[in-house]
UniProtKB/TrEMBL annotation:
SMART domains from the UniProt entry: EFh (SM00054)
Organism for this UniProt entry: Alexandrium andersonii
Protein name, entry field: EF-hand domain-containing protein
GO molecular function: calcium ion binding
PROSITE patterns tied to this protein: EF_HAND_1, EF_HAND_2
Residues covered by the EF-hand domain: 22-57, 67-102
Length: 119
């Protein structure tokens, strides 16, 4: 039993390392995609467009509605630690990570319900 537990822990650590690398690459790609003017930062309009793109990509998989522009502006204000009015990559990451986690949890929950109650 202990050996099985140790194997599970090692596997979870391995998956976590792979997930973090994959997720970081996706966040970097998203940042570069929504930085429409290519100035190295994301303004409020670019952030909202990026959030809408994220929700459109998962719409077929997860039944969710995107946040309002006002909600995204509040997220941006809380993430804009240098008060520049725009987000650098690290500030952008603090907005995208919780949104992505919410979508993932929601998707997993809907998937579990679908499997448990297929009718």
């Amino acid at each position: 039993v202990l050996a099985g537990l140790l194997i599970c822990i090692a596997a979870a650590d391995w998956l976590n390392d792979r997930w973090n690398g994959w997720f970081q690459a996706k966040v970097r790609n998203a940042f570069e995609t929504v930085d429409f003017d290519k100035n190295g930062s994301i303004d409020g309009t670019e952030l909202y467009a990026g959030v809408l793109l994220l929700y459109l990509k998962v719409k077929g998989l997860v039944k969710v509605s995107p946040p309002t522009m006002d909600t995204v502006r509040k997220l941006m204000d809380s993430a804009d630690v240098d008060r520049s009015g725009a987000l650098d990559f690290y500030e952008f990451q603090t907005v995208i990570e919780p949104l992505s986690q919410q979508l993932l949890v929601r998707g997993m929950f809907q998937w579990a319900i679908t499997l448990a109650c297929p009718w």
